[in-house]
Amino acid sequence: MNQERGSHWWSLSKAEQKQQIEQAVDWYLSQDGDLSDIQVTLLRDAIGHTFRGLFGMARQDVFNLGRPESDWGPIPRHVLMIDGISTDTLRRALALLRETPVQERPVFT
Predict the structure, then answer these.
(1) What is the residue range of 45's domain?
(2) Closest CA relative to residue 106, chosen from 64, 60, 53, 59
(3) Which of 46, 59, 75, 96 sits between 20 and 30 A of 21, alpha carbons compared?
């Protein structure tokens, strides 16, 4: 998400917002190395929020991916509920998200 357009985020169409989130998630998934538990959690949440049309929340998830790990402190893995979520799982979810039409009306449940 580039800073220049960040101030105009809400002026983008929902399709453009969705596309930017997908691109950001794809960028994180294409990086070398293993994802941390916090990164897995935030990527999972960004994908899920985007599926439900909660683009502002998804954008915040992506923004938080740029925060240092030390900001989070230790969080037990079972609290994050990410057991069984791998990079491949996130890639498959992203591929499905890309095939899914934009959720125009947010779903909060």
Answers:
(1) 14-99
(2) 53
(3) 75
